Amino acid sequence: MSRTGYSQFIKSEAKRLGFLSCGISKAEFLEDEAPRLERWLHQNRHGEMGYMENHFDKRLDPTLLVPGAKSVISLLYNYYPSKTQEEDTYKISKYAYGEDYHEVIKRKLRLLLSVIQEEIGAVHGRVFVDSAPVLDKAWAARSGLGWIGKHSNLLTKEVGSYYFIAELILDLDLDYDYPVTNHCGTCTACIDACPTEAIVQPYVVDGSKCISYYTIELKNEFPSDLTAPFEDWIFGCDICQDVCPWNRFAKPHSEPAFEPKPELLKNSRRDWEELTEEVFQQVFQKSAVKRTKFSGLQRNIAFVLASGNRKGG
Predict the structure, then answer these.
(1) Residue of 61, 130, 171, 271 marked active site
(2) 133-to-27, 59, 289 alpha-carbon distances in Å
(3) Residue 32 annotated among the catalytic residues of the structure
């Protein structure tokens, strides 16, 4: 099989395994991303996410993650739900409705790597799902899967942005895809809608101001001077995606593991406020919500409730 044949085979297998799309780029140093990442870190846009400072070189050079790497295969996996939570209740980001995506997608990536090795031979590589120093959005954009929007998420004209990004880095030469053009135009919907003003300028997000940062990454108490409205979000935040015009094309996923527990969808404000640790463990047993722990979720609910900023004041 030729290099072109290998590339077509990999994309076909990715589709068979349920991935939305698959793109390939050359495994090389991300020269354009280096100064942006350095500036973002220097400006402390990462807040208390100290892990973002680690492995700076590895984030920019895939050959340091996989010796002899030749190709970065980027893949998208849909998580847009067919049903969402009730109106006027505390909100959980849609990506966390079902089972933790890290495990679901890693299983599929390992299957893909196994099939590649069976078909092609001695190919070495590693799978990555948002838990290693890989700039996944940069690689996905490089491989033509979409463009980086003003909210810093990857966007596609076909389905918007409600998908996970994963990578398979291989020591195999393949045909490489090309970036697509930016289609944000003059739209500033995401910037205008962010209640904490985390999108400080187009394409630049101050992670330390993001509701997702406060409700997931921040392990300590909220700053005493924090008054920005969370608009009911208690784990993550989808505001910048919800208002994006391109997400009118989002289509429901077909992944059983991402189906939410009924309690998550029907819980009223009172249900959330009276949530016990036992129920928390039952509902979020395999969910990404466990990252914030029961105490963290309680903290988030208490902040929204006490500050009276459910809908922005």
Answers:
(1) 130
(2) 14, 5, 22
(3) no
